[in-house]
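Anyone have tokens for Phosphatidylinositol glycan anchor biosynthesis, class S? Sequence:
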Amino acid sequence: MATTEVERRRGQLAALSIAAVVIIVGVPLWWRTTETYRAWLPVSQIKEFATLQLLLSVDVEVVFSRGTVSPEQQKKVPMTQTQDEEHRVDENTALKYRYEIRYRTATIMEEDALKQPTASDADLSLHALSENPCGSLVVYVIPESSSLLSEDVDVYIGQKRTAILRLGAQMRVGRTLEQLLAHLEPRIKKILHMMSFSHTDITAALSDRVRLAPGNRENIVDSMRAFKSSPGYEITFSLLNPDPKSHRLHWDIESAVETYVQPLLTKLAPIANFSIDSQTLYYAMLGVNPRFDISRSSYTLNAESLAHVINPVEARLGSNAASSNPVLNFLLYVPDALHSPLHILDRKKQAVHSNAFHSPRWGGIMVYNVNDVYGPEAVLPVDININMAKVMGVFLAQLRLLLGVQSSSPPPGFVVASCSSTGLADWELDRLMWSRSVENVATATTTITSLAQLLDQIGNIVINDNIAEQVSSAVTSLQLAVAELEAGNLGFALQYSKEAILASERAFFDPSLLHLLYFPDDQKFAIYIPLFLPMCVPILLSLIKIASDARQKRREKQAKKD
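Reply: yep, here.
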């Protein structure tokens, strides 16, 4: 009996020891080694971006030339005014525009510059005196009697960040300065909306974050035509030769790109990086058979059939699989001898002057007619040298539209200087930078808040240190971008917004997030039950037996006492 009791006691101690090891050591070790690693994220800062309040500040300098203000009025300048505009886009997004307007009188050198024979010469002379920082504007006010602007012109918009404003006939020097400023305020606002940004531009840039009402969509057609903001773009020029037996085409695309396209892309360098390539496609036919118009003695493509032209051609263009950047396609189509000349008609059945069309967020196609070389004595194939100046003029106009450079009509009385050799004015670049900065901030905030919601809802997703670092970088860049927009530092705001959108997308599309995305809890039980059940059943039965024996002993002791 004593030996049996000792063995039973030893078995109980062994069972208790194994259970203790399993509970104290095994369970914590298993829990620690199988838990999902989730690095720390700045969740509280991310939640702040759910409600976005953007403040855009613009520095404006209004310079009064001689004859626009009286000596008494000159004593009150320089002076500064701050004007604010608030707009509620939706319940989670608000916009505020702040214009810091500083008034001063012109210097002697600026007075000399304003005496130039033409407004364009004055604009260049004023720019040579001082270069205005990115995002700022300078408005020079000249008297009504000045011959710098013609009689029907009130405002001249230059190539740089300057505008020349003629004082109205109803404002004489004898009026008070307050009346003068009140007279200038609405006209300066028009200049700001023309050269800086308008509420329509900024609202369109928020399309990734804000659902636009049907009435607003009609006002942002130009922005819907442009490509979305991207850190890089690929530009492809393609020459389509449908019938090499009819003609041999020669185009100096390398020289044309260097002369016409590269200056524009160099100026757009703060916006994105660009890469250019070209190709020639033989036997590339249009997806639509043109119809012969007897009244025009030419073949025609109507507006309704243009949508069917792109798909068959696009299949032969190819793509760069190594890059995820958007591709801007520019196609030059030279009709064969049997279908020349070929003209594109608009919806009013009128011939398009450029004989070209563009597809939103895709590219453009130009038809280049050479029917005059197909004479009765022509020997096929005919050698054709393409006029690249004519072609690039059309492609540059399409490129501006596809990149988001707005070409809105100026208000009555406004004259805009013609494009320089770069194809882009400084203020047009600023206007694009404002839109892209806001668009990047809106996209990055949407991406980072969506990622935070996804990680919060699905606890099985691993958050490694690399993702946490990218998220923290995106949040920091977003905060800096918003702060620079408030300070009016447009260049820094664009740079930080680009860093924010890159970091947020790298974090959102990280492959490691998908490892446990579709790993539900029932699969965990299916894996762990076969592993732990055979081990746990004997331990549990031993513990139950030990507890039962302990209760039996207590009952026996209680019976003896009684």
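Residues 56-202 form one domain.
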